[in-house]
Amino acid sequence: MTEHFNSADKNLQTWVEKAKDPIDKLFREKEALAVLASKEDLKASEADFQKLLVTPEMLATKYGARAAIRRKLMEPVDALVDKAIEHIEAQLDEKLANETDDEKIEQLQLKADAIIEKIVRELDNPSILGEWDAGEDSVKPPPRGWLLGNMFARRFLSILVAEGGVGKSAVQYAQLLSLAIGRSLTGDYVFQRCRVFIMCLEDGEDELRRRIQALCLFYKVKPEELKGWLYLSALTDAKKTGKLMQLHRGQPMLGALGGKLEAMVQRYSLDVIALDPFIKVHGVAENDNEQIDMVASLLIGLAIKYDIAIALTHHTNKLPNAEPGNANRGRGASALKDAGRLVYTLTTMSIEEAARFGISERDRTRHVRLDGAKINLIVGRPIRWFFLESQPLGNATELYPHGDEIQVARTWTPPDAWNAVTDDIMNRILSDIDKGMEDGNRYSEAANAGGRAAWKIIQRHIPAHTEQQARDIIKAWVDDGTLRRDTYDNPVTRKKGVSGLWVNKERLRPKPKAEDEELPF
């Protein structure tokens, strides 16, 4: 039973300890009784038992003694629970005193109910490993603490993985600015306004100021909107910042940074801490899974302890294949990826994507896509695109008359190849494909179709479409059965069994026309 007591939930003990002397006294008595119950010989002195209001008559047998002690253990439970509930409700009233957000009020009340339920359950039957009976669990857990879309959530680690120079800081800073001002700049839903701390460990104060001020200029955010909501730090000197963990004689040791981050949370009531980049917050071997897991566990522990979100930017490995949505792209040990519950990648637009969207090579590298790489908390996540703008900072001097232009990220929506495909145009395209070529040949979707390429019919009717967009439409029609493949004998080359395309008329749903207008199908 001593083990049971010592393994009680830390959250429970924290709440109970705050109830001061009455509950502390009862817990000390409970622990002392548990110690007696654990004695195999049960030969404690009569004075010891009388002190605990356990009479010698209760100790007639070994098992009777244990049962008596267990009954005695339950006597102070009602008083203990009453005190605990009283304290919790007082804390809740204090938190709700100035709270006007109905959703947050409901979340706080649910949290208080869950804690009370846990206290009752734990004292009624102390757990061994924090277990509970699901059939007796009447507490509905509160919703996850989402803050910005599915990017950041309280008590969880978010990681954005990208190569250097792709724009990960530009994208993440825009997301964090959304939280600080309470309105979305990146298309992500803002669940609540948050106090944000950005710690940049790669660039100095001036560069961090340039980035934040450029974002404010681009999105027309006034400085007074940030006061008390966004805090910045740019300390590149590890001696001043310290590390979460560092090696001492080859062994990982706790550093000073963790304590400083806790102090920041307490001083400014932070909701989000963003560390940019991860490699700079620790001094352990980055390829050692055990050591990186220790660092990640420290961050997760901090997030859980203070009910905050922690966001990291993370560099990629040296492999040439920057596959979008691949969580394994991050440099170093995989333990960081495993610890994160919201892992995203940011990738420059590929040559093939640029061709599909009609983007020039000059602008291709300014388009970046955000993909969910490892998202344990939700199902699915669509691809998001950003365009990297150049924002003049307005800091011209005599020596630098043009001042600085700083990279900022804005959302970008790819052109939809189907927007121009009206029912009328679709019917004309399909009519041309089904009619075939003048020499009797059939059109084909094959990559090497040459003059028989069906995608050229798309461009004939929609000249603005790129080759890739036109190919995508033909492929979609083949995949959904609008176009069917069949073989025929080439009348020009005399080759038999050549593959060509026909329209599957049963799959068409043409737009209704006037009675005197003849439909092609």
Give the SSE map:
Blueprint: H1 2-6, H2 10-17, H3 21-38, H4 46-51, H5 62-74, H6 77-96, H7 102-124, E1 146-148, E2 152-153, E3 157-162, H8 168-181, E4 196-200, H9 205-219, H10 223-226, E5 230-233, H11 238-241, E6 245-248, E7 251-254, H12 257-268, E8 272-276, H13 289-306, E9 309-315, H14 335-339, E10 342-348, H15 351-357, H16 361-364, E11 367-375, E12 384-392, E13 405-411, H17 423-435, H18 455-461, H19 467-479, E14 483-488, E15 498-503
Parallel strand pairs: 3-9, 3-10, 4-5, 4-8, 8-9
Antiparallel strand pairs: 1-2, 6-7, 10-11, 11-12, 12-13, 14-15
Helix pairs in contact: 2-7, 3-5, 3-6, 6-7, 15-19, 18-19
What report would you give on this structure?
The chain is α/β, with parallel strands linked by helices and 521 residues long. It has three domains: 2-136, no CATH class; 147-385, Rossmann fold (3-Layer(aba) Sandwich); 423-507, Arc Repressor Mutant, subunit A. The protein contains 19 helices and 15 strands. Strands 5-4-8-9-3-10-11-12-13 form a nine-stranded mixed β-sheet. The protein has a two-stranded antiparallel sheet with strand order 1-2. Helix 3 runs antiparallel to helix 6 (77-96). The longest helix has 23 residues, at 102-124. It starts with a helix and ends in an 18-residue tail after the last strand.
